[in-house]
Amino acid sequence: MRLLLTTDTHLTPRYPHRGLPDELWDAVDAADVVVHAGDWMDPGLLDAFEARAARLVACWGNNDGEALRARLPETAVADLDGLRLAVTHETGAADGRERRCDARFGPGSETPVDVLVFGHSHIPWDSTTPGGVRLLNPGSPTERRRQPACTYMTAEVRDGALTAVRRHDLPPAAARRS
């Protein structure tokens, strides 16, 4: 099962010149499951993902208005061929993240998962908590902020395990379309 992980697309009607990179749309088309960790900002973008993704697992982010919050949960949980995955926008500061995420999503928690995909910081992240939860932040495909490149991630699920996790750096002048 091929996964595309993305977040913080930050598309709004205020910025019609900004679209998503063609490479990201190609990855959406190729994925069996698309995971989006919020900050869509435009319900039309959610419509586009729903139309193109074979399966979408998504949540809302802090910049998403009522229209998106009415359609998406704050945290979504899915079973992907035996892999339990959650997606939420914010996990707080980097310091203490593993401890907080173990308390909320680790073994013995109310919502135990194998993988947590999150966003908000625009900083790619890949770590594992002491309890064994894999934490992934794919960064942002549209706003690199202080990072060297805009990013997204791909991964695979095989036999109930996450494999082949890869961060993709987008070229600075990536062609964009919406």
TrEMBL record:
<dbReference type="InterPro" id="IPR029052">
    <property type="entry name" value="Metallo-depent_PP-like"/>
</dbReference>
<dbReference type="InterPro" id="IPR000979">
    <property type="entry name" value="Phosphodiesterase_MJ0936/Vps29"/>
</dbReference>
<feature type="domain" description="Calcineurin-like phosphoesterase">
    <location>
        <begin position="1"/>
        <end position="159"/>
    </location>
</feature>
<dbReference type="Pfam" id="PF12850">
    <property type="entry name" value="Metallophos_2"/>
</dbReference>
<dbReference type="InterPro" id="IPR024654">
    <property type="entry name" value="Calcineurin-like_PHP_lpxH"/>
</dbReference>
<keyword id="KW-0479">Metal-binding</keyword>
<protein>
    <recommendedName>
        <fullName>Phosphoesterase</fullName>
        <ecNumber>3.1.4.-</ecNumber>
    </recommendedName>
</protein>
<comment type="similarity">
    <text>Belongs to the metallophosphoesterase superfamily. YfcE family.</text>
</comment>
